[in-house]
């Protein structure tokens, strides 16, 4: 398999996981698949393969004390660019999985954050953090207050 084919396969490989988290987040199959770390193994294996094949002694020395110009030259090589891209795919999927599980645990809406994470990982993380903060700040307190009032009414009617 050449670099272009590996790049294309990796891009397609992640799509079912994103589709499940975004389109069918509460499906039992989605939960079961996203509990596993197995989706990361082939991607990390592809990354390792490309990493080993894209690092030269010159690249290693340049990257040991990186300067922007050195990084730009490194990524000008197709192998290095594919390595970097698969790095993004692995890490974005990992972070997307974390956002998905946070949503499952807390009940916070995550579809928008997952979609952003798919296309621009750090923006998805920021979106999730802001959504979590907004939900906890403006909605949880009123729900907790309502629950406290209900508890008081119930306890006063029992006495």
What order do the helices and strands come in, and which of them pair?
Elements: H1 3-23, H2 28-35, H3 40-54, H4 57-64, H5 68-75, H6 78-106, H7 111-119, H8 121-158
Low-pLDDT runs of 5+ residues are none
Query: CA-to-CA gap between the ends?
Result: 76 Å
Task: Give Rg in angstroms.
Answer: 22 Å
Which structural class is indicated by helix and strand composition?
A: mainly alpha
What can be said about the biggest beta sheet? none
Number of strands: 0
Q: Report mean pLDDT, rounded to a whole number.
A: 88
Strand content: under 5%
Query: SSE order, as H and E?
Result: HHHHHHHH
The number of helical runs is 8
How much helicity do the residues have? over 70%
Q: What is the overall shape?
A: globular
Describe this protein with a few key phrases.
159 residues, mainly alpha, globular
Question: Would you summarize the structure shown here?
Answer:
By secondary structure, the chain is an all-alpha fold. The protein has helices at residues 3-23, 28-35, 40-54, 57-64, 68-75, 78-106, 111-119, 121-158.
Describe the structure.
Helix content is 86%, strand content 0%. It contains 8 helices and no strands. The protein starts with a helix and ends with a helix. It has 159 residues and is mainly alpha-helical. The model has no long low-confidence stretch (mean pLDDT 88).
């Amino acid at each position: 398999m050449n670099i272009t084919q590996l790049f294309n396969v990796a891009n397609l490989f992640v799509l079912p996981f994103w589709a499940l988290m975004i389109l069918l987040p509460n499906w039992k199959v989605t939960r079961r698949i996203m509990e596993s770390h197995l989706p990361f193994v082939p991607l990390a294996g592809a990354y390792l393969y490309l990493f080993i094949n894209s690092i030269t002694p010159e690249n290693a020395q340049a990257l040991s004390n990186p300067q922007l110009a050195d990084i730009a030259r490194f990524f000008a090589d197709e192998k290095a660019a594919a390595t970097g891209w698969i790095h993004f795919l692995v890490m974005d999927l990992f972070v997307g999985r974390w956002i998905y599980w946070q949503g499952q645990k807390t009940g916070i809406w995550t579809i928008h954050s997952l979609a952003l994470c798919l296309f621009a990982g750090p923006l998805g993380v920021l979106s999730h953090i802001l959504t979590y903060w907004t939900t906890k700040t403006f909605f949880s307190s009123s729900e907790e207050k309502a629950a406290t009032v209900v508890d008081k009414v119930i306890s006063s009617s029992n006495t």
